[in-house]
């Protein structure tokens, strides 16, 4: 009898702990949700800069001929920068996952035509599509306007990985993506200034004279 | 437990309210420098979306320009590998 009384108590205790864990993770998520604040932090930019430098040093090792690869090199730098940005996003957002998997998809297509990931995506989007008519009834008046729909689609094409997503997801992804892009611009311009500054300094000035 | 989780995901997907959408749009508006100062009831959702698209396109162009610049800098700096080492040291600190 004592055991039957004890058992429900322990069950609710573990349930409460689980709920607390869920609440804690949710609270942390909500704190992280002001994503533009996260992307503005110094540490995030430093992490990104170091990853970018690593990627760029690998790039310069891979493509030795400088003259022919100038236009191509720009494209390669852009891709390396985007990849580093996606890694810095820690994979919590769709666009970052889409950037990372797009490289893998290209690799798969070169070897075989693997439809594994595509089939999984199609299954998910199929299930989402079956729900769309359900909440289209609840849509805002603005949401159902064709102009708004068109703009949402354009936005969905601009943000990587959001072509077939519904409106609220596109908005959320766009919020994070814009903050990430701003950080990318800041980091890359700082790096470029650093490189150009040190370049001009080393080329123009010899080691400083000992006495003046 | 897993069924509870999947159910909560599905319900949160279909129960998207107008308020949530309005909230997301206003958050987006705060990020875009052009629309930041204006009151949210004066800016229509379509304008926010339009400006968002323009802003993202501008940022993409900036990133492209910067990557071109960086690639040229790297190409010219390849001969001088000391620079790369200096930069790496600076960034590791």
Written description of the protein model:
Chain A has helices at 2-32, 35-40, 42-62, 70-88, 94-111, 116-136, 141-144, 146-158, 167-204. Chain A is mostly helical. The longest helix of chain A has 38 residues, at 167-204. Residues 122-140 and 203-207 of chain A have low confidence and may be disordered. Helices cover 77% and strands 0% of the residues of chain B. The longest helix of chain B is centred in the middle third of the chain and has 33 residues, at 45-77. By secondary structure, chain B is mainly alpha-helical. Chain B is elongated and about 55 Å long. The termini of chain B are far apart. Chain B is built from four helices and no strands. At the A-B interface, α3, α4, α6, α8 and α9 of A face α1, α2, α3 and α4 of B. Chain A: Keywords: Nucleus, Transcription, Transcription regulation.
What structural keywords apply?
A: 212 residues, mainly alpha, 9 helices, B: mainly alpha, 4 helices
Give the radius of gyration of chain B.
22 Å
For the termini of chain A, the CA-CA separation is 95 Å
- Morphology of chain A: globular
Spans of chain A of at least 5 consecutive residues whose pLDDT stays below 50 are 122-140, 203-207
- Give the class of chain B from helix and strand content and strand pairing: mainly alpha
As residue ranges, the low-confidence spans of chain B are 5-13
Instruction: Count the beta strands of chain B.
Output: 0
């Amino acid at each position: 009898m004592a055991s039957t009384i004890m058992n429900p108590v322990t069950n609710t205790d573990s349930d409460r702990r689980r709920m607390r864990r869920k609440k804690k993770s949710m609270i942390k998520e909500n704190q992280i949700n002001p994503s533009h604040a996260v992307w503005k932090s110094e540490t995030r930019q430093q992490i990104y800069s170091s990853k970018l430098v690593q990627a760029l040093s690998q790039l310069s090792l891979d493509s030795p001929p400088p003259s022919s690869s100038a236009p191509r090199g720009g494209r390669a730098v852009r891709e390396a920068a985007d990849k580093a940005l996606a890694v810095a996003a820690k994979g919590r957002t769709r666009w970052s996952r889409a950037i990372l998997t797009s490289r893998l998809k290209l690799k798969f297509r070169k070897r075989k035509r693997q439809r594994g990931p595509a089939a999984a995506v199609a299954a998910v989007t199929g299930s989402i599509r079956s729900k769309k008519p359900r909440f289209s009834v609840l849509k805002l008046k603005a949401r159902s306007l064709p102009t708004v729909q068109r703009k949402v689609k354009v936005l969905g094409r601009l943000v990587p990985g959001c072509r077939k997503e519904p409106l609220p997801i596109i908005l959320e992804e766009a919020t994070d993506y814009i903050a990430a892009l701003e950080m990318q611009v800041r980091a890359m311009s700082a790096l470029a200034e650093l490189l150009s500054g040190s370049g001009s300094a080393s080329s123009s000035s010899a080691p400083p004279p000992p006495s003046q | 437990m897993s069924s509870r989780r999947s159910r909560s995901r599905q319900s949160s997907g279909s129960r998207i309210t107008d308020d949530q959408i309005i909230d997301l749009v206003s958050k987006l508006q705060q990020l875009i420098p052009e629309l930041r100062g204006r009151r949210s009831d004066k800016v229509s959702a379509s304008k926010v979306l339009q400006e968002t698209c323009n802003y993202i396109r501008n940022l993409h162009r900036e990133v492209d320009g910067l990557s071109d610049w960086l690639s040229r800098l790297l190409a010219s700096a390849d001969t001088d590998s000391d620079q790369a080492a200096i930069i790496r040291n600076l960034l590791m600190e």
